[in-house]
């Protein structure tokens, strides 16, 4: 009887131990967050950070990681195999290259928001520029590098359309993205800069002088899409859809973006 009792005690102990291990494993799995990486144009930084806060409050098991930069640079990183789940570009051409390569499924992509291109100057400077045609008066103007920064490409298109580029080219200070252009203007390192309206609205150190006419440049459209090789397709799809929701669109519009639908 004593041996039987001891045997039952050991079995019960092992059962409790195994049950405890199983529970611990479940708790570890439950506490482990799914991380989604979004490569997005620098001009989306403020709006996407606010949306991230809203989304993570509703989905405690999800962590959103952003990689902000120039759309051309981000597209190149993705082409070279960077581990990204969603690409949110500030230009269709950079985005379409990834669709053509089969990295992004066309069915899992769309044009989400639009923007405007504006001319800005430091707030403290005496206003001598009133239109883009007055840019002949400046010594230095900053734009994003056209080959990598969509805003820079749009700015160059506007200058060429208005026949200003030849006179401005030697005065241009190129920047790695729109935020750097904004910084150059804020610090007075340049007399003026061409940035998105959404970026201009974030700073009290600059003022908007003029808006580039839409007919002078390619339409400013921000496409978004899921990468085929997403590590977490289910969770990525959920966040991709949330970015199209009324709640997200309200945030985008708050920061100056235009809805396309």
Structure description:
The protein is an alpha/beta fold and 261 residues long. The protein is built from ten helices and eleven strands. The strands form two sheets. The chain has a six-stranded mixed sheet with strand order 2-1-3-10-4-11. The chain has a five-stranded mixed sheet with strand order 7-6-8-5-9, with helices on both faces. Helix 2 links the parallel strand 1 and strand 2. The longest helix has 30 residues. It is globular, with a radius of gyration of 25 Å. The termini are far apart. About 3% of the residues have low confidence.
Explain the layout of strands and helices:
Layout: H1 2-31, E1 34-41, H2 45-58, E2 62-69, H3 71-79, E3 86-88, H4 92-100, E4 104-114, E5 117-122, E6 141-144, H5 150-161, H6 165-168, E7 172-175, H7 178-186, E8 192-196, H8 197-200, E9 206-211, E10 221-227, H9 233-242, H10 246-254, E11 258-259
Parallel strand pairs: 1-2, 1-3, 6-7, 6-8
Antiparallel strand pairs: 3-10, 4-10, 4-11, 5-8, 5-9
Which key terms come to mind for this protein?
261 residues; alpha/beta; 6-stranded mixed β-sheet; 11 strands
Concise structural overview:
With 261 residues, the chain is of the alpha/beta class. Helix content is 42%, strand content 25%.
């Amino acid at each position: 009887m004593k041996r039987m009792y001891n045997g039952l005690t050991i079995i019960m102990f092992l059962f409790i131990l195994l049950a405890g291990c199983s529970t611990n494993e479940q708790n570890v799995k439950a506490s482990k967050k799914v991380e989604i990486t979004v490569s997005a144009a620098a001009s989306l930084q403020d709006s996407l950070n606010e949306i991230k806060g809203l989304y993570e409050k509703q989905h405690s098991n999800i962590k959103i990681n952003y990689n902000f930069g120039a759309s051309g640079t981000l597209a190149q990183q993705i082409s070279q195999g960077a581990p990204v789940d969603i690409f949110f570009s500030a230009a269709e051409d950079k985005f379409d290259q990834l669709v053509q390569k089969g990295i992004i499924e066309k069915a899992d992509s769309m044009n989400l928001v639009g923007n405007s291109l504006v001319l800005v100057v430091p707030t403290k400077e005496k206003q001598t520029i009133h239109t883009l045609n007055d840019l002949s008066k400046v010594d230095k103007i900053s734009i994003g590098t056209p080959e990598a920064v969509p805003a820079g490409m749009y700015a160059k298109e506007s200058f060429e359309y208005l026949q200003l580029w030849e006179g401005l080219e030697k005065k241009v200070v190129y920047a790695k993205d729109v935020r750097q252009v904004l910084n150059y203007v804020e610090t007075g390192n340049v007399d003026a800069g061409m940035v998105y309206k959404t970026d201009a609205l974030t700073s009290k150190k600059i003022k908007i002088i003029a808006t580039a006419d839409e007919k002078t440049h390619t339409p400013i459209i921000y496409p978004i899409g899921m990468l085929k090789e997403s590590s977490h397709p289910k969770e990525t799809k959920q966040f991709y859809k949330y970015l199209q929701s009324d709640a997200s669109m309200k945030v985008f519009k708050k920061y100056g973006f235009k809805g396309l639908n």
